[in-house]
Amino acid sequence: MHSGEPPAAPASPTLVPHKGCTSPDFRREWRTLSKDEKVNYIDAVNCLARTPGVLKNNCTLHDDFSWVHNRVAHATHGKAAFFSWHRRFISVYERYLQGKCGYRGSLPYWDWTLDWEDLPNSPIFSKKTGFGGNVDPESPITVGGGRCVVDGPFSHLKLQYYGSHRRPHCLSRGFSDFPGRNASPAVVENVLASEDYETFFLATENGPHNVAPLGIKGDIDSFTAPNDPIFYLHHAQLDRLWFLWQMRRPKVRLGEYQGRAQPNGLASLDEILSMEGLAKDVKVSEVMDTQDNELCYRYSLS
């Protein structure tokens, strides 16, 4: 699955890598990437969408990730594993981009706090330098109240699953009233000021997290949300918020983890994060630090 580490990022002057992570990769905001870096990323995503899957017949690797997300959604939303499972999930996706499709960078993120006052016109939706935008409002409804995306690099995507059902369809969106306030710097700062992990993850999931599904609609407003490639940049931003929250009190928060677990228990660092066959399962404790165990990346502290 993985054929080597990505290019090393410059060492951080404020974060000390742990154990074998001596050159942590540096995840960057989408609009800071060069044109070539954006093309390299988009080409790799399209490569996964052409590569036969490993879990389901007549599906691609892109479909496999959506299928897995749907399978474990009940255990990863409204539960303590919201952050830990998605951190593992998007890191596995990053490794597939690198190992299967020759991607040379790290997973970018979409900082929607830069766009909160006009989210539909964010550069992320550019058809030339982004992920394509809204749809023709006169075209037929497909899934999730959305319609086929007709421009940008993913307008050709043929997706196999929607929710739990095999339902071949186009990549679909249907912009509605974006909840821009939930993406504002003020709301994000309020979330980052949470005193404990459970308060933090619930405030994030019910606030900034909902910016994408409630605003973009279509595929991303479902448990097969990874159908829309924007999902990964959205969740990298959410992972970045967890990283920033942890770094405010790293001695405590790199081990702080509480809340509900599936089915009816209390969260534990020994809880298993299932990848349903896409990668080996790991414990929560193995993803608490982005510069420890199998993880080796960081974000800017500002």
UniProtKB/TrEMBL annotation:
Q: Name one GO molecular function term.
A: metal ion binding
- Asked if the record carries the keyword Metal-binding, the reply is yes
Task: Answer yes or no on keyword Calcium.
Answer: no
What Pfam families does the entry give?
Tyrosinase
UniProt keywords, alphabetically: Copper, Metal-binding
Task: Report residue spans for region: Disordered.
Answer: 1-21
* Domain Tyrosinase copper-binding intervals: 228-239
Task: Name the domain of life.
Answer: Eukaryota
Write down what this protein is called.
Answer: Tyrosinase
- What does the record give as the organism's lineage? Eukaryota, Fungi, Dikarya, Ascomycota, Pezizomycotina
